[in-house]
Every structure is written in structure tokens, then in C-alpha cells.
Amino acid sequence: MTAEPLARARAVADAVLYEGYLLYPYRATTRKNMARWQFGVLGPPGAAAAGFGEESSLSAGFLLDPATNPVLTWTVRFLQLQRRQVLGGDGRPRAELSVGARSWLSWDEAVPQEIVIGPMAAESLVRPLTVPAGVDTEEIADAVGRVAGTLVRTRQPLAGEFALAVERAGGFLRLTVEVRNVGAPATGSQDALARSLIGAHVLGQLSGGQFVSALDPPAAAAPAVGRCASHRCFPVLAGPPGDHSLLLISPIILYDHPEIAAQSTGELFDSTEIDEILTLRVMTMTDAEKAQARATDPRAAEIIDRCEAVSPEAMRQLHGVLREPGHDRPHPVPEVPEGIDWWDPVADGAVRPDRDAVPVAGVLVRRGSRVRLHPSRRADAQDLFVDGAPARVVSVHQDVDGESHVGVVLDDDPAAELHEWFGRYLYFAPDELEPLDDPEK
Questions:
Q1: 34 and 121 belong to one structural domain
Q2: In terms of domains, do 177 and 140 share one?
Q3: SS3 state at 115
Q4: 0.85 exceeded by the pTM?
């Protein structure tokens, strides 16, 4: 596996990992920031039933089309909550500490955790997921170097399991991956969150076979795919189109082959929103609100700084691009809707001579297609001179009677480019053309 597909998949996985980590407008007092971590939270057993946490597991079923000796590598990824407590110079807990122009808040941060299982054969197994507790301290000094306070970061231990079940399903293997929190029961909502696996998801890598799409399976695999079950997540192909060696089990709904938009140049940690909207929202914040946001988290400070420095060119890029789905695929010339006259602009706007196509002998002929001319209607004596000549299609038209006409330029015409530039084409009916290209797959 090359580095590029894996890097692409990890970029999407990072967006899943940090979804909900910060929610605009990024101030600690914002109600949305008081209820973070919406997706993929695996709480301690019993926390959901008690009403102060999330369910303890997620699972996904999918198919593997094995070749010879398939080898799997699983990467379980999640965030571990880290409570940051501000202490004043006297050692007492503080909600906020300001030193010079900077401020620090007591705040819930998170530490990314990643546990790799494999490489391994496609066999059932259970593996522990263990993350130890931890305490880190950071002193805050004033302008003259005196200790003005301390940040104490505390992490609770996490205990989880990764389970893989493998069974035969005809010529395929049906795999079920489950990630579960197996820690001690929580005593309350704060304890439950501190011992949750947050943003949990799994990245699977495969050699010696291919993962089968759960969204668009081949006909032979469709019945077995229909018998796969998932809970709180869904498996999608994570590599570029055509790559079936990477799988992302995500708690956020995705399509196969997801990717981060090229227009998104930095993390905003709220990937279900739109970068442009978030950036504009941050730019409307007052200086006092921005200072509050910077005091919460280094990642929030990075967002504020990036939004403040955004250039007009970058802002225009965030506005996105207009995409026409399937614009590069041939479409037959549309029929004028019933009740619409040919002179109505609606009818005129329905056709695109530079993109429309017309079927000829089972092939969709469009701009760029190569054909051989066989004039048969004898509307022009010059047709005799081009009989059997190869040509290139430059446009497809339809007249007011619904008849199709194909504009071409001759391959051996030294003025072909000039004719194309001026729009002076030779026109033939579809039944006067012989396609020279293979049918589109």
C-alpha cells in the first residue's frame, strides 16, 4: 500500500476523531461547548442505562473478498479526556487565571490515543485496549519569571476491548468488528466522560484481498452484505476510488471514498459544518470573545489566529466550487418537456451541444468521439468526397422537430482547427456515422 491512500484515509479519520471537540463560537461559556463529544463516545458499562453517559460499544459488519492469505491491520483511535485545572500562585483551584495579556481557563482537553492490532490473519480474536492514567503539570510564569500559577492536567485510566469475529459467507468472509468500553461502572456524568473512549473509530488495512463496499456491493455479494449488521457506526471504503484495501468504521455517516475538501486548509473541529460559515462566525466575535476562546485551548487559539489572518483569496476559496455531478459523462440529448414550446428558453436551456450525446450503434457519441462518415441522404454533392473519411465530433444538436444532428471536423482537413474555432462544422445524422471508439463502460 502506498503512503498516499493511507494519508488520505487518516485525514478523514482525523476529522472524525475531532468532530465536536470545539463548537463555534469556541467560548467556554457557550452552551454548545458545555456538551461536547457528540459522536462515537463509548461510556463505561451501565452509564447509558443510568442516564449520565453513552452506550459502551459500537460494532460494524462487512464483507472481505479474500485472495491468498489475507493480512489485516486494525488501528483503533479515540480521544482520552484530559481535565485541565488552573491553580493560582497560592496553589488553590481557579476557574481562570490571567497573567499579562494571556488567560487560562479550567477546561476539558483531550489526548488522541491510537492502538494498532496486527498485522494478523483473518481470524477471530479479542484484544485489550488499555490506556493508563496520567498527571502532568505546567508552570505559568509572569513577565519577570515568577511562578504565577500552575496547570494540572489529569487523565483517568481507560479499559476497552477490540473484538473481531470472522465467518464464511459463501465465497466471502463476513467480519464483525466491535469496540467496547469494559471499565468499572461510573459514579456520575463527569466520571463517565472522563473514562469514555471519545470519537472512537477503526481504520482497517488489508493485503491479500479486498473489502467489499457495504453501500454499493457487487451483485454476487449483495445478499451477504444485506445480512451484515452495524450498531452506532458504519463501514465505508476509505481509500481513493478503485482502492478496496482501506476501511473506515466511522460513527459519522460517510460515503465510500470520502475525502477532505481541498478548500479546507485547517481544522475547525466541527466537520459537519461548513468552513466558510465557521470562519465568518469567528470573524464576527469581539476581541473579548476571542480572548475567552484563546483561553480555552491551544487548538481554539489556532483557529482564532488563522481566521484573523485569512486572506481575501483564501476566503474566496472557502466559498467552494460549483460542481455538476457527472459533468464529464455523456448524457443523451434531453427531450423537450411536454407542454414546452421549442422557442421557450426552458427548452433551449435543456440542451448542451458541447456535452450532450447521441446513441449510435450502441455507443454514446459526443464531443471528442471519433467516427467514420457514411453519408446516405445526399443533401450535398460534397458528401461523396467524405464518404469513409474519419472525423472528430465537436457538437451534438437537436432541431425543433426532435431530430439529432452531429457536427464534425475531418481528421485530414488541415483547416480542421480553424473550422472548429469558427464553429463551421459538417453536420450528419446519427445513422450516417460509424463509431470508432469502444462503448463506454
A1: yes
A2: yes
A3: strand
A4: no
